[in-house]
Amino acid sequence: MASPSRTYMVATDVGGTCTDTIVFADGEPVRLGKSLSTPPNFADGVLDSIRDAARSMGMTLEDLLARTKLFVHGSTVVDNTVLTRDGARTGLITTAGFEDTLLVTRGAYGRWSGLSEDRIKHPVRTERAPALVDADRIVGVAERTDYKGAVLLPLEEAEAERAVRALLDKGVEAIAVAFLWSFYNPRNEQMVRDVARRLAPDVYCTLSSDLAPVPGEYERTSTTVINAYAGRITRAYLDSLSRLLVATGYDGPLMVMQGYGGLLPAAEAAERSIGMLECGPAAGVIGSRALGRLLDQPDVIATDMGGTTFKVSVIQNGEIEYAREPMVDRFHYAQPKIEVVSIGAGGGSIVSLEPGSGAPRVGPRSAGSRPGPVCYGLGGTEPTLTDVFMLIGYMDPGTFLGGSMRLDREGAKRAFDEKIARPLGLSTEEAAFGVYRVACAQITDLIHEITVERGLDPRDFTLHAFGGSCGMVAGIFGAELNVKRLVIPYTASVNCAFGLVSADIVHEYSTTRVLPAGTPAEDVNAIYAPMVARALKDLAAEGFAGDRVGLEWSVDLRYMRQVHEVQTPVRAATPLDTAGMERLVGDFEALYERKYGKGSAYREAGIEMTMFRLTARGLMERPRLEPAAPGGSDASAALTGRRPIFVEAAGGFRDADIYDFGRLAPGNVVRGPAVIHTPITTIVVQAGQRGTIDPYRNVIVDFD
After folding, report:
1. What residue ranges in 354-431 does DSSP mark as E strands?
2. Structural domains of the chain ordered from first start
3. Using CA atoms, how far apart are residues 554 and 272, in angstroms rounded to an integer?
4. Parallel, antiparallel, or unpaired for β 639-647 and 607-618?
5. DSSP string of 46-60?
6. Chain segment 479-536, per-residue pLDDT in tens
7. pTM listed for this prediction
């Protein structure tokens, strides 16, 4: 029997509450799948989600995977490992005399970095986050490399063996190695790895010179420790998922999303586990940029409200912002990561009352997927924002997840009354309206923080609202921000999965060298030459060559004696010439003023280059999205009834039209107040707003 043709691209993203799948093929409509996440065995939820998508196609899970040519994956496995402190028992080997680097962090800054503003207000009460490696599992060895890469004190093999054995005797499962200036000369670190492999081949070993070849003693050490701490679990998870997919009929490559917005083969991702931190939100931003390009929207505020958090990122002129100081649970790390700012205000965020003041609070605690919100009927007892959505009329108990899961409205009401409404002395409705407004205000404040407080005007941007819950609040905070318009993507609650199939294979390379900006172009080209050669070799091994390869140069620049650099893309032709170098400096100053204000650039201070970066892309094949011909504006064929919902302009309940998204056609216009139910999310069009179904089945909301 002939094997089935492999035509599909499948992408699955594991979130804190739901696991989402998207299926693409040329000439076919986009198919979506969704299921509850299944901690701790997240792979089960992956198959459940793919199965849901297959069902919508009239196929079995096995049939779909047998016809899949590429599977792309994003997961919170690394985030969860660090946040729950459930990683491997890890040891650290470092340069003798510097054993306390990880524990000291960045001095006083380490006492409050990553804390909320409320906690920072009380500095005496702050403490450094407990390190992922206990002090008795940090071993110093006699070795030294100087700032130019010269080995002043070679590491003796016996010394390396002594350090490794000392950690093995303490039962470590992973070893991080971080020596001073090792990124200039990794020889001593490599000896430790060779010894560790000989003595304990099953122990996960990671080197700072491989993972983070950058200056910054604490950040480089922290990065290496995080990678070791989560690496063993990440490798086991990806191996398990790969075996499960193969057993279910898939035999193609498994690609894994990274927090900087690119994909890596699973085997490489397992060795660089830290790259998976916040890979889901990164995929969402990549998906939002892809949608912005499709709709000719270069300036986008990308918002994502899932089950656990609300996240926001800004895309300017089609370019994504990257975090200056990436951090996970108060630990800094030196890896590129798309900037995504978040607060604990998602659909599953628990609603409570502030001790003392008694004011309602949304988050940061979350009910997750199990037990989840009270209305899920899975054992949850604390009211969540999803329960509030139910009480104010936005959610229909019979349409959640396409009707596959009946919601318990009465249970949600009882819990909310007991814990929130009665203690406040309010009716159910009044208290629910208040909590809803609190959540919208928290979100608006966060978006102001990443736009207005950085000199950006939200009125210049289109707002993309994705995630399973965002469509129920975006009409409020979008209007408050005065954005141009609001877009709820067709892939709204699976937009992170959409981003997975919008990404490319991406490898990052870097070389640290401090040089004045007036350095001749040929000297800069000589720095890039070995990185380019390595990138082309790596991509060729993965099947990319010719026009399927993209190489992007960028340089970190700063004014003399400054601490922080600005990563500046090289927009001139490469290899560089004198004009290209001059343009690089001009672009740096323009970016500097965009970050720090007009007039802040000061060339007379002198400019220096500190790091040379290369981003190498293997350009993935993407299925084409075919627009449908728009029809008339009349949406009455999709009208299923009316019910009271909370309308902000009215300050209370008003009757609203209810629509079935599956029966809406391109060109149809829905005027608020109205609710649109889709199998994967709910969209609320507030009074004074109108939603239009575009040719790609996105809902475009304009403000009257």
Report:
1. 360-366
2. 8-81+236-276 (3.30.420.40), 280-330+458-500 (3.30.420), 505-618 (3.30.1490), 636-703 (no CATH)
3. 22
4. unpaired
5. HHHHHHHHHHHTT--
6. 999 999 999 998 887 778 888 888 899 999 999 889 999 999 999 999 999 999 999 9
7. 0.86
